[in-house]
Amino acid sequence: MPDAITIPAPADFHVHLRHLKMAHLVVPHVRKGGFSLAYVMPNLNPPITTTAMALDYKAQLQAIDPSVDYLMTLYLSPDLTPDEIVKAKQAGIAGVKSYPRGVTTNSDGGIESYEMYFPVFEAMQRVDMVLNLHGEIPSDPATASNFLHFVVFSDIGTEHLPFPRLRIVLEHATTRAAVEAVKACGPTVACTITAHHLALTVDDWAGQSFHFCKPVAKYPDDREALRQVIREGHPRFFLGSDSAPHPIEAKSTSTPTHGCAAGVYTSPVLLPLTAHLLESFGALDKLEGFASTFGRRFYQRELQAGQSQPVVLQRTKELVAEKYEAEGADVVPFWAGKPLDWQIVS
Ligand SMILES: O=C1C[C@@H](C(=O)O)NC(=O)N1
After folding, report:
1. pLDDT of 44-59, one tens digit each?
2. How far is CA 257 from CA 202, 247, 253, 254, 260, in A?
3. Which of 54, 168, 265, 314 could make an SS bond with 72 (beta carbons 3.0 to 4.6 A apart)?
4. What's the pTM?
């Protein structure tokens, strides 16, 4: 059992950093949690739909913490054109995020059908931008669809030839079926896994609003499939935290017509938490691949010589903070008040 681990430049390939007061509270937590690269989600209100908006948002994030490499994304919507994709690529924007309509936070402008976006996907394939899929559709009794990650996904998976070179990431997989669908695809298709979905199952979020997120955690066998693919060291499965801060009040209150906000907040403890969880299911030796190398390779963000930005973890028990607050913003982290076996020492 090692007492210290060094990970070169951990990278979080799916994170919500918000804006305004919440951004001021949570953006510094990317570094605090051990990460120097943040792949930033565009579901602000209003969503980030143009290159200009994404660059403006990036500048806001850099003003809060310039030490993080922010990879920006656009929100897939009818406003997005092939010309805008070319412009976005030239401006260094890395991907386009697709949210099925109504499925999670700020997804009212999300998509209902993929076909109308085929010209956009064609442009993305041509300039080599990544398509990020929120792989979840609202339940529909008519088609018996219910958390069917792979239904959405298989609509445009690599075996569907219009876009065989389009690089696709299925975000925050939560089921065995999703893991198997991604494994069956070729090298253009990858998958992110969150830290919290490695810990939670249905029993943990039903009635515990701070564990409620979209997609919700599923059954023990689904969680085991996520754990197993990490144990295997599969290079197309890597960490994307989906760390999603919401004010404590929004997490704590629901009404007869509105549930509480969906999102689990892991940024400030992300690397220690990931190490702790991987060790609990016998995958600590896969931490470097899962939290740094595999995602960087898929996104072509590999470290250059002399760029290793190592983070050192030491085996030391420490309790996670009960909450974080700053002027006008507060948030409860995942694992609040509980011990983690690893801490960042440098
Ligand atoms: O996909 C998402 C979005 C996120 C948010 O709060 O933005 N919260 C979630 O639980 N899932």
Report:
1. 999 999 999 999 999 9
2. 22, 19, 11, 8, 10
3. 54
4. 0.95
Residue type, 55: L
Reduce the DSSP state of residue 217 to 3 states and report it.
Answer: coil
Backbone phi, then psi, for 21, in 5-degree steps?
A: -65, -40
**Contact in structure between 97 and 75 (CB atoms under 8 Å):** yes
Measured in Å, residue 213 CA sits from the centre of ligand 1 at 6
Nearest-CA residue for atom 11 of ligand 1? 214
Query: Smallest Cα–Cα separation from 49: which of 116, 102, 113, 109?
Result: 109
Number of domains in the chain: 1
Q: Find the domain containing 17 and state its range.
A: 4-344
Convert the pLDDT of each residue in 64-82 to its tens digit. Answer: 999 999 999 999 998 899 9
CATH number for 239: 3.20.20.140
Q: Per-residue DSSP letters for 11-73?
A: EEEEE---SHHHHHHHTHHHHHTT-SEEEE----SS---SHHHHHHHHHHHHHH-TTSEEEPE
Give mean pLDDT, residues 135-162. Answer: 50
Residue with tokens 């059954």: 219
Ligand 1 centroid vs 132 CA: distance in angstroms? 14
Query: What percent helix, strand, coil does the chain show, rounded to 5?
Result: 35, 20, 45
Burial status of residue 183 (CB atoms within 10 A of its CB: 0-12, 13-18, 19 or more) = middle
- Which residue(s) pair with 193 in the sheet? 239
Do you know the residue count of the chain? 346
Residue bearing the CA closest to ligand 1, atom 8 = 263
* DSSP SS3 for 220: helix
End-to-end alpha carbon distance in the chain: 20
Q: Say how many Å lie between the CA of residue 7 and the centre of ligand 1.
A: 27
